Amino acid sequence: MRITVSCSAALPLSLSLLLLAGCGNLDFPDLRGQAASSAPVPAAEPVTGAPLDATGGALAVPEDVEKDMVAEAEAPAASSIFTGTEQVVASLGDPAVPGLWMETSLVGTEQQAVLRSASGAEVQVTLKPAANGGSARVSIAAMRALGLPLTELVELQVRPAN
Question: Which of 11, 107, 112, 142 is disulfide-compatible with 161, CB 3.0–4.6 A?
Fold first, then answer.
């Protein structure tokens, strides 16, 4: 029985054998059973509240600016009662949660509101405080009532219910 090998198949095979033959003289260390790193990890430097300049040095903050920054940090993130009218961009919320609702950073406690789509459709919903302060999320029932696509971001007008 005679086996013939074409030139195109022999070249990659011979090249592979040549490369493998060159690996025989390499000395690979035995790393089995060793920890990933035995060097101690340096401790991180403590973080201070002072802003830093481009070189890493602390900047001097004027006292009135610092007072404004502290007042903003201590202010509540959202008022407990939403008044007025707001335009928000919303996405579909958790489809497993039933009801007509919208999670938003506009409120600190639950309250009733009316959502209006760009086409003029309206639905009354319960505004719920957003857990992470992110973008608005609307229930699947509210999205369907407004005739909105479930897979897109939508712009809605939000106003308190009368």
Answer: 112
Residues 6+ apart with CB under 8 A from 123: 100, 114, 115, 142, 145, 146
102 burial via Cβ count (<10 Å: 0-12, 13-18, 19+): buried
pTM of the model: 0.51
**DSSP category for residue 105:** T
Q: What is the rounded CA–CA span in Å between residue 130 and residue 109?
A: 10
Mention every residue, 6+ apart, whose C-beta is less than 8 A from residue 91.
Answer: 135, 136, 137, 138, 153, 154
Maximum CA extent, the chain = 95
- Minimal CA–CA distance to 110: which of 130, 93, 91, 92? 130
Task: State pLDDT tens for residues 35-74.
Answer: 555 566 666 665 556 666 666 666 666 677 666 665 555 5
